[in-house]
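Repro case for the chain-ordering regression, as requested:
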Amino acid sequence: MATAYETAAKQSIPAENDSVPVVAVENLKKAFVRHQVLNGINLHVNRGETVAVLGRSGTGKSVLLRLIIGLETPDAGSIRIHGQNIAGLAIDAMGEIRKKIGFLFQHAALYDSLTIAENVAFPLVHHRPKISASERGERVRKLLEEVGMEGDLTKMPSDISGGMQKRVGLARALALEPEILLLDEPTAGLDPISSGEIDDLILRLQRERQMASIVVTHDLHSARAIANRLSLLDQGSVVIEGSFEDLQHSSIDFVKEFLKQSQEEL
Amino acid sequence: MSDRTNIAVPDSAHERSNELPVSVAHAILQYGNAFFEWFGKLGIFSWRTLCAGVTPPYEWRELIRQLDEIGSKSLPLVMLAGAAIGVVIAMEARYSLGRFGAKSLFPATLVYSVIQVMGPIMTGLIVSGRAGSGIGAELASMKVSEQIDAIEASAVNPHRLLAATRILACILVLPLLTLVADASGLIAGWFAQRLVEPLSFHQFIESGFRGATFNAFLPPTFKTMAYGLIIGTIACFEGMRTRGGAEGVGRAATNSVVLASLFVILADVVLVKFILVVFP
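-- result from build under test --
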């Protein structure tokens, strides 16, 4: 009898079609205890597109990413990856979906018992067991070179700075050549120069790999630099979605206040 | 009736005395809920880990790493504790048996006390303290720093990679460590006796194991596999469900040791009776 893992792998996933969003979130709702964090979110991301999800702290931006990767289960609504509804899939069944997604956690979440190189190699060790150790080593070296960390292979995560940890986390997220990239506050806690470097890195990778990306951030400057579209959340709902200019021309009070406060921070 | 006998009792005191039974009942209900909820969640965790552990891909590399971490690194402590127990039993047995003129029973007393009773339970409690707290703290630290979420986001089952390997390592390692503790206890106990009166090691072994069968020693040693299951499961469960930062990590480590030790002791009572019935 096929396991859930095997069944999900055999399920036909619709062929990539530019008219079908890579990630489609519809009427998504999530509450923790009595606090309604997401209250009917709609979001679509196409191949090669970067959508920045903005909002105040505590508005559920990170929860949205966790729902898409399956670390939380929604209370209502649907999440479709290439047309396949992933809400409620068992952990092994989600495995095939997750291999198509790279996730950068807010604090990188590097495995502190492994070296930098071993961290980046982790997805390859588990999901590409047939490649040789030397080929794997070469891939790891190239990934770290892409993010500017090629000189630190044997260091431990505790030996490098927060910005460097994010770069390594990004390299790990790209190890399986994902079609979707989820970035949770990639520039949080970084100085302006490091933030700019991370933004440039994300832009370059996006140009080269044409992934569907969702970036959660409260940094409007960063969002403006890297995103094709911005989606502003407030009280669990999308207040406005569009380009930066659309936000600038919006007559919604919350949008105006958010932009004003963000400009003042700059 | 004089006014002095009609003592006015404040309404708040009346209210407090009426509230007390409600508060106690509420507290009992709350603790009862928490008690059953804990067992329920432990059951779900155990089932998920079992399902993950018996289905491929198997995490052999991590299992070997854990065998080293839990087994090899517990050896010095287990040997030392075993030796100490052996010396203590030797001293006490010499005194007690001497009072009843039964000094010749010393080797058998030491052998049976160490192998059947003290060796297994002492090894279980030591591993519960050392490995249980280590596993609980490590997994708790990984949980609060989102490393376990990162493992899951990388399409690797954390129950398979982290929990199943550690639990299996504990199950495999406990009987081996128990044998080491037993050997250490017997050698140290013999040596303590040797310092007081002539007793060759050969005499000691021959006398101590005279008439013994495998049934006398194998079940007590292999019952420690159950201890390993308890220690590994509770430590992994407490670690992987941690919340609350550094405080949560500390709480997970403490809970792992306390609960694992408690259940090891309770299991010992049950298993001793079981062994006496099944292997008379």
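Ordering looks correct now. The CA atoms of residues 6 and 93 of chain A lie 8 Å apart.
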